[in-house]
Sequence to fold (329 residues):
Amino acid sequence: MNLLDPSLVHAATALKLRVVGREEVARDIVAFEFEAADYLPLPGFDAGAHIEIDCDGVARQYSLCGDPAAPMRYRIAVQCETNGRGGSRFMCERVQVGDTLDAFGPRNHFPMHAAQHTALLVSGGIGITPMLAMAWALHASDTRFEMHDFASAPERQAFVDEIARAPWRADVTRHLSRCHDFAPLLGGFEAGRHLYVCGPLAMIDAVLDTARALGWPDDHLHCERFAAPSPAASPTPAQADQPFEVELASTGQRVHVAQGQSVCAALAEVGVRVPMSCEQGVCGSCITRVLDGVPDHRDWILNADEQASGKVFTPCCSRSKTPLLVLDL
Ligand code: FES
Fold:
C-alpha cells in the first residue's frame, strides 16, 4: 500500500454501475458483472483491488475478480449470507441484471509486490476472488506462480468453468479438503517469492503462522481479511481504552472521544461523516491522515511500516496514545 496515493484516503472515484451479468458460480456464491451506466470506460484497476458498493445504505467492499487487462467490465462475486450484516443479502436477493448501483473505487489495499519473481496464491471459499485477478496479472507479466484454492465441497468450488478455460489453469490446484498442515504447500522461504492469502480467518492465520515458522519474512506475506479476528486476538484489550480528543485540521474543532466510543462515532455526533464499511479495521474505507499525535492502531489492514509511520490510522477502531490527534479532515 502506498500511503502517498491519495485514492487510499477517502477520495475514490464515484461510479454508477449497470448490472449486465448475474450468475451463481457455486452454492451461495453469486458473480455479478458491471458496465459503466454512462457507457464510458470504467477506471482501470490492479490485481487485488476492490470496489465499494452502496448496498441500500450500507457500503460493502468486493474484490474485482476479472482480468485487470480487460477493465471494460468489472466482475465481483458475493458470498450469500443469511445472517450477514445486510450487504450480501441485498446483493444476492435484490440485485438483478439491468439494475444500477452506486459504487466507489477501485481502490487497492491488497496489491501485489512490484519486485516479485514468483508468487504463491492461497485461497479458501470466497477468498478466491482477488486471486483470480492476481492469476491473470501474473500470467500477463510472465511471472511464475502457483495457486492453491480450498473448498469444503465440490458444489462450493467457485469459478470451476472459468478456471478450466483460463490459460493459466495448469498453475492452479484445487483442494476439496481442509488443510491441516500448510508447510508442504508453502515450502521454505526463497527471496523474491511472495505469498498472498485470502479466505476464512482461521485459514489466513494458519497459513501466515506456518509461513513465519518456515522463515518467510513478514514483508513477503500479504493477506486480505474479510473480518477482524476475535477480540481476544486484538493487539490492545478494550479495557485499556482511554478517552482523548481529535481535532479537525480544516476547522480547528475539537471532538471528545469517550472510552469505548470510536472516533467515527464521536465525529458522527458532530455531523462529520467518515466513509466506513467494515467498522472492524479490515477494509481500509475509513483510513484517515494523522497530522499530529500518535495513533494507537487496532486495525488489521495497515502493515507494520504504515502503522509505525503514524501518518494514517483507521478511526473506525483505532484510538490515540496521545491526549490529542489532529486529523486531516
Ligand atoms: S471501516 Fe473498515 S477499516 Fe475502518
